[in-house]
Amino acid sequence: MKDHRSRKDAEKFGHSQRREFSRSDLGKFNAGKRNFDPIAIIKDSCRNRVPDLLPVKFKLMADSMFAFYRGTVEIMAADLAAEKHTQIEAQLCGDAHIRNFGFYATPDAQVTFDINDFDATCRGPWEWDVKRLVTSVILAGREAGETPSKCRRTAQMCAAEYCSWMRRFARMSTVDVARHRVQRDLRQPVLRDALMKAERASAIHILPKMAHKTKDGWRFRKIPGQVLKLDQATRETVMAALPAYRATLSPDHQMLFDRFDPADAAFKIAGTGSVGTRDYVILLFGRDAKDPLFLQVKEEPPCAYASYLNQPQVANDGERVVLGQRALQVQSDLLLGWCSIEKRDYLVRQLNDHKSSLDIQTLKGRRLIEYGTLCAELLARGHARSGDPIAIATYSGSSAKAATALVEFALKYADQVAADYKAFLKARKSGALDKR
Q1: In the prediction, which pLDDT does 429 show?
Q2: 219-240 residue pLDDT tens
Q3: What is the C-alpha to C-alpha distance for residues 297 and 347, in angstroms, rounded to an integer?
Q4: What are the distances in angstroms from CA 330 to CA 16, 115, 165, 178?
Q5: Which of 13, 64, 205, 254 is the most buried (most CB within 10 A)?
Q6: For residues 129 and 422, what is the distance between their CA atoms, to the nearest angstrom?
Q7: How far apart are CA 405 and CA 276, in angstroms?
Q8: Choice between 355 and 37, residue whose per-residue pLDDT is larger
Q9: What is the mean pLDDT of residues 161-183?
Q10: Within a 13 Å sphere around the CA of 133, how many CA atoms are in the beta-carbon half?
Q11: Rounded to an integer, what distance in angstroms lies between the CA atom of residue 312 and that of residue 295?
């Protein structure tokens, strides 16, 4: 759906939605009204995943409360959908926690920082993303040992930054919003280490780590817990999807892709929320062994929010993710595309093309504030690009009321995550998660 309201109509719409759903309502959350079992939602989300990898997923989720939060967007989707909302839509990241922001390479070879995970992207109420982001800031602060007052202060600054930037975007022209570049000193400690890691993460750098030369040519190494070998039939099936993927690229990007020939494919285990989905990696070469390319072929299940929102059915969930990513990012991977393999939908993108994210355990005090406000600006820009910044800004207003309410929600929801995490650990220990 496109937002083509005039400024006057957008302001009128923002005010009208505030009357229907007040800014203080943004802070409401009542776990007592839940009509679902979070453990049942976790089990349901795993229904079509690779059974042998579910213990790996659950082990990762058990590592910390934040890891559990990362792996359970489906639970929060159910909670958000159970409450009223502003009905002011934008393209949602869908899983806008602070670990889903990071560095990657742009088409012009610059390393940039932006939202970088879109598995749950869809159109929906703008505040759902902000609630997930601010909750993640509180959880990160708690994990780093911050006091409750410091967690609240950091969350308040994050929510206020989002609202402040949305007011700025509401005053800007549409083209200026679309072009807006986030300005930060990349030498800041909060970004420097991740940037250095991203600069090292090139295909030529990871080639000897992931593959080796054999009598049959370059082949993936078996790396326990990370990369698994494929049987010949599956390997050929994955490689056979490349022409369909190529067709989703623009003509100039097809020209680039045609310079590479596939050498091997393997199964890759990555992430937390995605563990158990079918995730392949393909090694290709251009002129010679000094010219490698890694493509990730990542299964995309239906959006976690799809059953709660009145969304048109998508033809391919890989395409859904690509279109959502392009809507939210200023610049996206030039080899971003999609395909289907054996009736499952896949996103295709470069693997480790100067990608990295921050370790949240290093985020404490001023670092967490700097990082949280950076993520808030990026999220606001994405929503302004894809939604109606005037309507959102008018609804939020110039006071701190909306930001304060968003923080109140996040504090309550962080407590709920703690309770759900405890129930998850109990279910894992008892074996309840194994009964499907």
Answers
A1: 93
A2: 999 998 889 999 999 999 999 9
A3: 6
A4: 31, 10, 16, 7
A5: 13
A6: 24
A7: 36
A8: 37
A9: 91
A10: 34
A11: 29
Q: Taking Cα atoms as reference points, which of 380, 365, 369 lies closest to residue 158?
A: 369
**What total of structural domains would you count in the chain?**
2
What does the pLDDT read at residue 354? Answer: 45
Is 264 within the bounds of a domain? yes
* Residue type (1 letter), 175: V
How much is the average pLDDT of 367-372? 87
**pLDDT computed for residue 106 by the predictor:** 60
238 and 131 fall within a common domain: no
Mean pLDDT of the chain: 90
Long-range contacts, stretch 169-174, CB < 8 angstroms, 24+ apart: 169/380, 169/381, 169/384, 169/389, 169/393, 170/384, 170/389, 170/390, 170/392, 170/393, 170/394, 172/389
Task: Mark which of 327, 350, 373 sits at the end of a domain.
Answer: 350
Running DSSP on this structure, what letter comes out for residue 71? T
Is the torsion defined by CA of 336, 343, 275, 212 positive or negative? negative
Give the global pTM: 0.92
Same domain, 372 and 304: no
In a domain, 185, yes or no: no
Of 100-109, 115-124, 269-278, the one with minimum mean pLDDT is 100-109
CB atoms within 10 A of CB 65: 21
CA 42 to CA 256: how far, in whole Å?
41
